[in-house]
Amino acid sequence: MAKKSMIEREKKREKLVAQYAAKRAALKEIANDEALPMEERFKARLKLAKLPRNSSATRLHNRCQLTGRPRAYYRKLKMSRIALRDLASEGKIPGMVKSSW
Question: Across the chain, which distance is largest between two alpha carbons, in Å?
Fold first, then answer.
């Protein structure tokens, strides 16, 4: 099980990303528009830099919904391989059987 602080930190980042997504997209659009003057594009980049770092989507890290584990994460299932195996062994996932040979 991951530390509670790490799980909470990730939740906080998710909220910030959602909150600033539109603002970031608008500033990036201005900054990357070649038709606009260089000064205006530079000002947009400065405003983008002043936004909180944790509001960037690249700062997010996928974590298991059950355990908070950051590694070996399946996107489709939103859980780690270990949590998936435990649930499969208990028979809680229909159609999935733990394989052993």
Answer: 66
pLDDT of 23 > 80? The answer is yes
Enter the CATH code of domain 1-61: 1.10.287.1480
Calpha distance 63→70 (Å, rounded): 5
- Residue 92 to residue 86: CA distance in whole angstroms: 9
pLDDT in tens, 72-89: 999 999 999 999 999 998
- Each domain of the chain, given as residue ranges in start order, spans 1-61, 62-101
**CATH architecture of the domain covering 62-101:** Irregular (4.10)
Q: What's the distance, Cα to Cα, between the start and end of the chain in Å? A: 28
pLDDT at 36: 93
Residue pair 55/28 in contact (Cβ under 8 Å)? The answer is no
- pTM of the prediction? 0.77
Tokens at residue 5, please? 């602080």
